[in-house]
Amino acid sequence: MNPALEIRDLSFGYRRGGEDLFGGLSHTFAAGAVTALTGASGRGKSTLLYMLGLMLTPTAGAVILDGKDVGAASDADRSRIRARQLGFVFQDAALDPTRTVLDSVLEPSLYAGIPRAVAECHARARLEDLGLSARADHRPGEISGGQAQRVAICRALVNDPVVVLADEPTGNLDRGNAEIVLSALRGATGQGRTVVIATHDPFVIAHTDHEVAL
Ligand SMILES: Nc1ncnc2c1ncn2[C@@H]1O[C@H](COP(=O)(O)OP(=O)(O)OP(=O)(O)O)[C@@H](O)[C@H]1O
Ligand SMILES: [Mg+2]
To answer: Rounded to 5 degrees, what are φ and ψ at 27?
Structure first.
C-alpha cells in the first residue's frame, strides 16, 4: 500500500498579512490515479504544487505523506523526502543547459545517495521508456521542446518516487507531444503512485481521473 498524500486545512500567503491562498483547503490525492490541479492564472496552482513538493512551507495546515505532517518537517528531512519519494516536473522542463540529458536524468539519484553506475543504469532505462536513448549525450539546446519535457519526466521518475508532481507539463507542446507526456505520467500511476498535474489545458483535464479546482 502506497502512502497517501493529503493536505489538511492548508493556507499560504507569500507575505505576512497579505492575501491568503487556499483558505483552509483539504484534499486526499488518490494513489494510482492522476489528479488535475486547475484554476485561473494566479490562483495558486504552482504554489500548491511547491507545497506538495516540500519546496514551500504552509502558513497554516498540514501536508501529510504516509501519515506524517511532512510540510513542517526539518529542512534535512524535507530534502531527504524530496530526493527519495517525490518527483517534480518544473514548468518548461527547466533543464540545466550545461549538462547532458543523461546527467540531468541521473542527478536526482546522486542526491539520493545512489552510486553513479546504478543511477546511470536507471536513467538509461527511463530514457529508453520515453524514446530518448539516442539523445542521452545531447544538451538541452540540442533537443526539441517536447523532448526536453520528456527528459524532465524521466528525471522526475528516475528514483521511482511514490508521488509525481508536474507543473503545466504540456504547456508549450503540440497535441502529439502532449499525448506522449500525458501517457508517460499516466504510466507513472502504475504501482499505486500518486500523480498531480497543475494545468489549465482542457485536453489534459479530460485525461485525468480527478480534479481539484482552486
Ligand atoms: N514569490 C512570490 N512572491 C509573492 N507573490 C507570489 C510569488 N509567487 C507567486 N506569487 C503570487 O501568488 C499567486 C499564485 O501564484 P501561482 O504561481 O501559484 O499561480 P498559478 O495558479 O500557478 O498561475 P499560472 O496559471 O499563471 O501559472 C499569484 O497572485 C502570484 O502573483
Ligand atoms: Mg503556475
So the answer is: -165, 145
Q: Are 38 and 15 in contact (CB under 8 A)?
A: no
pLDDT, tens only, 139-183: 999 999 889 999 999 999 999 999 999 999 998 788 988 998 899
CB of 46 closer than 6 angstroms to any ligand 1 atom: yes
Domain ranges of the chain: 5-213
| pLDDT tier at 21, thresholds 50, 70, 90 | very high
Q: In this structure, what are the phi and psi dihedrals at residue 51, rounded to the nearest 5 degrees?
A: -70, -40
CA distance 137 to 97: 12
Rounded Cα distance between 16 and 31, Å, is 34
How many A from CA of 118 to the centre of ligand 1? 38
Q: Which three cell numbers stand for residue 117?
A: 553506475
Pocket lining: 47 vs ligand 1, CB cutoff 6 Å: yes
- The verdict on the CB of residue 99 being under 6 Å from ligand 1 is no
Nearest to 186 by CA among 169, 171, 173: 169
Q: At which residue does the C-alpha cell 493529503 appear?
A: 6
Does the pTM surpass 0.85? The reply is yes
User: Which ligand is the nearest neighbour of the Cα of 90?
Assistant: 2
**Are the C-beta atoms of 178 and 171 separated by less than 8 Å?**
no
Task: Please tell me the number of the ligand nearest to residue 37's CA.
Answer: 1
Q: Which atom of ligand 1 is nearest to the CA of 43?
A: 21
Q: What's the angle, vertex CA 167, arms to CA 93 and CA 203, rounded to 5?
A: 105
Provide the CATH number for the domain formed by 5-213 in this structure. 3.40.50.300
